[in-house]
Amino acid sequence: MCIIFLKFDPRPASKNAYRLILAANRDEVYSRPSKAADFWGSNNEILSGLDLEEGKEGGSWLGINKRGKLAALTNYLEARQNPDAQGRGFLVSNYLTDNLDSFAYLRKVSSEAHLYNGFNLLTADFRANEDTLCYYGNKGSSEPIHLKAGIYGLSNSLLETPWRKLQHGKQLFTSVVNKTLPRDGLVQELLHILNNEELNTPDLAQESQGVGFSKAILQALSAVCVRSPGYGTRSHMLKLLSLSLSALSSLPPVVKFNQCHICICLSQDQYSHPH
C-alpha cells in the first residue's frame, strides 16, 4: 500500500510558488530489502529509492531526474496476484532512463499492461516551455490521460477513488498547500500529514475492493500512515519543485524518523545550503 498527494501548478502565478508539491508514503513489508532515496551511485542525474528484493533489484516507487522527468507508482489492492508477473518497480526506473515523454511512455506501458499485476503510474515532464503530468492505471481505462493543473490523491485504487483515507488526507493536504508558508513550515506540515495514523473505518469502497483480506488488515491499511506487525509505512517522500531541476538536491540528507526514512527533494533555487 502507498499513498500520494500532489498539487500540479505548471505555471504558478508567484515566482516563489511551486510547479509541483508532492507528498507520499511508501508502505511495504518491513523485511523487504531496499535502498533509501539517493542518487544512483556515480550517476548524479537520477534520484530515487531502489528495490533490492531478489529478482526485482533496481525497481523503484518514486523517482526524479535532472532532465525534469518524474515517476510515481502505487500498487492496486487485490487479494489474488500473479506470482510470475513482471516487477512493477521497473516501470518507474525505466521511465527515468528512457527518452520517451510522459504520455508516450504510458502509451507504451498500456500496451504491455497485462504483463503486470495491478498498478497506477504517474509520469511527468518538467521543461522550460511546458510541464506535463500523465496518469495510467491498468485496472481502469485502456488509455493514459493528461492531468490538468490541480490537486490529486492516489492510493491503491484508481486515481481519485474516494477511499476515506484518501479523502481525509487530501483534505488536509489541500488545506496546507493553499496556505502561504515558508519552505520549512510547508515541509513540517506535510510530514505531519504523512504521519497521520488515524484509522478511517469503516470504508465500504476499500472493503469491497479488498475482498479476500482480513478485517484487521483492511483496518490497518485505512490510515494514511500504516502501522501493523510486519508491514507498514517505511518512508515519507516530499518533492517541492520550482523553476530549475538542473541543480536537483536531496536536502537534508535522507534521515530516519519514527521508523521511517524521510527524503525531501528540492530544486535548488528554493534552497540555500547551510554554512
TrEMBL record:
A GO BP entry: protein secretion
InterPro entries in the record: TANGO2
CC annotations in GO: Golgi apparatus
PANTHER family: SER/THR-RICH PROTEIN T10 IN DGCR REGION, TRANSPORT AND GOLGI ORGANIZATION PROTEIN 2 HOMOLOG
Name listed for the protein in its UniProt record: Transport and Golgi organization protein 2 homolog
Organism encoding this protein: Cyprinus carpio (Common carp)
Taxonomic path: Eukaryota, Metazoa, Chordata, Craniata, Vertebrata
